[in-house]
Structure formats: structure tokens, C-alpha cells
Amino acid sequence: MFKDPTDADRVLIDVAVMDANWREEVRAEVIRRVLAAMADSCGLQKPSPSWWVNFRVIDEGSWGSSGDVLSILSLLGTGVFTEEKTKAIRAVMGS
Questions:
Q1: What is the average per-residue pLDDT within 21-34?
Q2: What is the number of alpha carbons within 13 Å of residue 64 lying toward its C-beta?
Q3: How far is the C-alpha of 94 from the C-alpha of 19, rounded, in Å?
Q4: Which terminus, N or C, of the chain has the lesser number of Cβ atoms within 10 Å?
């Protein structure tokens, strides 16, 4: 446990997600939960002021894996998202 916040390590957590229906309040909640989980795992009551979370939304067509470009649209029929979320993503993506 840190005794002095100035002794804390600086941490940057980079959350990268596919472009979809990421409303501001949802992004804020993700950031809060990441910071809370970090504090909990370090045995701290609250996150250190030297920790930062960067929430990045990657544009459609800008993800790549396994030798190809990935799309969030290919996940919409897999059951990963609720029907309501799928409709919201489709509306945002214009598909």
C-alpha cells in the first residue's frame, strides 16, 4: 500500500474499443470501474491520482487481426449484444 501519493507509480490504462454506440455516460462508467478495480486490486480505498485511463474509440475498419480487417458489424448477429444494443449500433453505424 502507498503511504504517500507522491510515491505512487504512474499508470496509464488504454481502453480501446470498436466504434459503436458508446454514449458519454457509458464511457465515464467504464473509466470509473477500471479505476475502482485497479484500486481494489492494489488494496487501496480509492484510485491513485497518478493513474490515468484513456478510453479510445477506434474507427470502423481500423481494427486488424489474423491477417484481416475486423468490423463490429460482423459481431452483431452472434448474440454478443442484446437486440436493443444491436439496433443502437446499427443506427450509429448507418447499417
A1: 93
A2: 3
A3: 12
A4: N
